[in-house]
Specification:
The chain is an alpha+beta fold. Helix content is 40%, strand content 19%. This is Penicillin-binding protein 2.
């Protein structure tokens, strides 16, 4: 091979080595670019997901936050909207004594004063109730962006959106008055739609006089007049909880619960404790219906003791215990709208704890709202409709900004179980502990309860159930808080409300 050919081969070899080196470097750079691209793609997807989650789940909470300064500043240029009842009555509105340049003289009016105080709330001293829940609607125009810009440029004073609720003035007034001078609450809803018609609570306050009475009521921990007891009050349920124990027993004895029999001697004896029936009354031979109608503690504590505890807990949690029930499609994390009912039994609970819990004593705590919802589900063939209080929101031009939809919340029991519970609750009102309803012009289905609070005959008095006449029906929960046993009963309050509504 000539020297020239050798030189050429050497040059070709060097060229190939250089090419391979360049290829290797290029592949290295491509891998780095790919890794960088993947990292940026992951970051982009994460940011897009975070933004989407914020828009879908968080944005409305931020907008509705009464501490949001942008909303607060915007509200100063807008006449706060009106809150209406189901029948068109004004529950809260703004009295415009101000000029267009200064809205500071505007005052919020509450025509029904104490009657709707907790549910409607107030917009001074902070925000509560519907004034808080609907703050962004009440304090914004609800118009298009072009209209907003036009209003800003023209310096026109505009009105916030108006909120139309499902609250029934007549029912609310009757419920509030029926509680009398005691502490208590009434929660009423339509079982077929989920519309909340009444949330009455006593003691109460006049929201128009808030500045004058604030120092007194805000520190009154004994009476807690600011508390909406209907949705935020937690109470020992007493025998109304036997509805839950009954359902648990039915779940575990699907084919033979109708064969249940018990001979009540006025007390049930366990290893190291006993459960007494009311006043030690012996009910004698009972089937399931009579045990339920008589509210027999002996039968139900024995029943609870026989249940599979793990399955019992599963049934109770399936009835929305230990979770927040959503209202009006608001974020369910907002526990300031409706408290969780609390059920604390676990697989290590003692026999005494299970027996006490099965009759509604022990550490179980419920809200009147939740108990009314259980009654509503029984009335509605086992299905709880999602409770809602806001029917629609309109802007000042009458354009609907949002409209409630009637949707199912959850199926709490089967249709056959609901029908069976209806029969048991009818027996309560026919010949049982709520026979005060016997002979009424409407059908009543209910369960009474007397939750013992101490050894001094202080109790919570309960009535949970529903009534219907023709196409009209109401699900209700009534509780009297910490009263002397025998002084007044929740079933009497419920009867007054039903009598007035169905007359």
């Amino acid at each position: 091979m000539s020297r020239r050919e050798q030189h050429q081969m050497s040059k070709d070899s060097a060229r190939r080595r250089r090419y391979k080196s360049e290829q290797k470097e290029r592949r290295k750079l491509n891998r780095q670019a790919m890794v960088t691209s993947v990292i940026f793609c992951i970051i982009f997807v994460f940011m897009a997901g975070f933004y989407l989650n914020f828009i879908v789940n968080k944005s409305q909470d931020i907008i509705k936050d009464t501490h949001n300064e942008r909303v607060a500043e915007k509200a100063k240029t807008i006449i706060r909207g009106t809150i209406y009842a189901e029948g068109g009555e004004k529950l809260a509105y703004t009295d415009t004594n101000s000029t267009e340049e200064d809205l500071s003289d505007d005052t919020r009016k509450y025509p029904y004063g104490k009657t709707f105080a907790q549910v409607i709330g107030y917009s001074t001293k902070g925000f509560t109730g519907l004034e808080q829940r609907c703050n962004s609607d009440l304090s914004t125009e609800g118009t298009t962006e072009i209209e907003k810009i036009a209003n800003d440029f023209s310096n026109t004073t505009v009105s916030g959106c108006n909120v139309y609720t499902t609250l029934n003035v007549k029912l609310q007034k009757e419920a509030y008055e029926s509680i009398g001078s005691d502490k208590g609450a009434v929660f009423i809803m339509d079982p077929s739609t989920g519309a909340v018609l009444t949330t009455a609570s006593k003691p109460s306050f006049n929201p128009e006089k808030l500045d004058k009475i604030w120092d007194d009521i805000s520190t009154d921990n004994e009476n807690s007049p600011l508390l909406n007891r209907a949705t935020l009050g937690l109470y020992t349920p007493g025998s109304t909880f036997k509805i839950v124990t009954t359902l648990a027993y039915m779940n575990q004895h699907k084919n033979d619960y109708n064969n249940f029999s018990y001979y009540c001697q006025g007390r049930a004896l366990f290893h190291n404790f006993k459960i007494n029936c009311f006043d030690g009354h012996a009910h004698g031979s009972e089937d399931f219906e009579h045990a339920f109608a008589n509210s027999c503690n002996s039968a139900f504590s024995t029943m609870g003791d026989e249940l599979n505890l793990k399955k019992y807990i599963k049934t109770v949690n399936g009835l929305l215990f230990n979770e927040i029930i959503p209202f009006d499609n608001f974020n369910t994390s907002d526990s300031n709208y409706c408290k969780k009912s609390r059920f604390v039994l676990n697989e290590n609970s003692t026999q005494a704890e299970v027996a006490q819990t099965s009759i509604g004593q022990g550490e179980t705590l419920v809200t009147p709202a939740h108990m009314a919802m259980l009654a509503a589900a029984i009335a509605n063939k086992g299905v709880l409709m999602k409770p809602y209080m806001i029917d629609k929101v309109e802007n000042s031009n009458g354009t609907i900004v949002s409209q409630a939809e009637q949707t199912e919340c959850k199926k709490l029991m089967t249709k056959s179980q609901a029908k069976q519970l209806q029969e048991y609750m009818s027996a309560v009102c026919d010949y049982g502990t709520a026979r005060i309803f016997s002979g009424s012009s409407y059908e009543v289905y209910g369960k009474t309860g007397t939750a013992e609070l101490d050894k001094n005959n202080n109790v919570n008095s309960w009535f949970v159930g529903y009534a219907k006449k023709g196409k009209k029906q109401l699900a209700i929960a009534v509780v009297y808080e910490n009263i002397k046993d025998g002084t007044i009963s929740a079933k009497e309050c419920a009867k007054e409300i039903f009598d007035d509504y169905f007359k």
